[in-house]
Amino acid sequence: MIAFRSNPIQLACLATAVLLSLINCSGGDSNPPSGGTEPNPQITVGTTSMTFGEVTVLAHSEAQNLEVFGTHLVGGITIATSPNFEISTNNSTFSNELSITGLESTLVFVRFSPQEGAIGTVNGTLTLQSNQASNKTVNLSGIGLSNAPTIATANSNLSFGETEIFQHAEAFGMTVTGQNLTAPINMSTTAHFEMSLDNNTFGNTLQIPLNDANGETTVYVRFSPTDTGNQQGTLTLTSAGANDVEVALSGVGAAVVHNYVTFEEQPLGFGGGFNQSASQVFNLHDDMSNIQQIKMFLQIDCPSGGCDDWDRFANIKVKDQNTGNWFEIGRYITPYWVGTQQLERGLEFDVTDFKGFLTGSTELRIYIENWTAKADLITLDFDFIEGTPDFSHYAVAEILGFHANSISGVPYGVSHNLDLDKTIQIPANAESTHLRTIISGWGHATPQDPDGRRCAEWCYRTHNIKINGTNTFQHSLDPIGCASNPISNQNPGNWTPDRAGWCPGMVVPVRTNLMDNSISGSTFTFEYDFEDWTNDGANGNAFYATSTYVVVKSNSNISAPVVID
Questions:
Q1: Which residues participate in catalysis according to the annotation?
Q2: Domains of the chain
């Protein structure tokens, strides 16, 4: 026996050795007992997906941590990423592939590094592999942003609806975004549209300085129409190196309207204490400098006993205060039995040609050839519509004035002594000259046409205006669609058959003939030549109520043309 000095540590070691000896009774065999199972190598990761957000191409996102560890691995772990993603173990040196021992928990740093052309959503994977272990995959995603200079706005078009001319629509705040710009953003708009950076000072051009260009800027855009009707425009954004951006603009310019009511439910009839006409002085708009158009509206209301049973010749006239002559500014035929209430504002006439008379103190006359005591109640009002006039001054002279009533017109198909030939002198400063004619036929005279139509209410005819002896303008008195009249409740009246150039319950059309500007400062002859036809006298007379005016316009003061018999 060998004696030795023992201490507590030695005793513990000895005990451990004895215990191991007892367990490992097979001697030096380190293999597991028969029927035992060898542990499976495994790779474990802290997450199965990683998202990195927006990153400009050729730049890098902030790295995210991925915890990786392995158990019972035979070798290390190889980690690889698809393009546009990188990995590192020290958050400094990154690559697409690396290896770790896998014997303990390890942090791997992952980042999104979009390459050139990797624009938009980019998806990828991170794959972990080790011998005898199942592969692990982590899904990766990010959004690649272009590094090219860009201008963007979420609005491709702006629509402002209806705005009165010379007024401003409420401004719309449009966000403009610039990226990677090296120059300011220049902006411009076409007519009727304006921009501002402060929603206070507006103009058609604007610049976003370079200091503010790379980021978001609010640009205020508004509609400022100077003309009526639909207006289309474009807002253009430009900057050096960036693609231009265009925003479509639209709005409706609404006229500023000054309304004047003249006659109000004025009764017109014969008998029952009524008169067929009424005249009165009214104060109308007195500043024509920005009046683009004048419209006249006539509404017929019926008394308690109903309206006149028949379709009647009717017109509206204005008095020329210099000569005392009455000029016919509108003609219509009344509907059978009813008024014009089916039309919101009644019958509509364009009377802009007479703007020189329809200003300030104005005397008007209304007339209906109504031979009954069931008087039509007439209301007449005018819209003076602001805008840019075509010319600042108008003047009018009457050439033919056969418009007192239906049978005071030009007798048709018989000889007469009415003068239809005139000589006309046009002022030298006339910049536009046209003829304005209203004509409607009356009577059922024969012989009738082959289609049974009698003159002059029914027979279709074409008349000529001769200038210096040459047929220059034609007036075709053809159907205008009586059956489609919106005043469609004229029963039992005979309102649907087509007349020659007019219909019951409708405005008699104005026939406008524009003359060549070479006529300015000259004198020419005028003749209204009716199509040949001879009345056989077997069924009464035929008449054409006719008014023709010569209208001149200029941007300087202009006198009326001179008409010589």
A1: 311, 369, 457
A2: 42-145 (2.60.40.10), 150-254 (2.60.40.10), 257-386 (2.60.120.230), 393-564 (2.60.120.230)
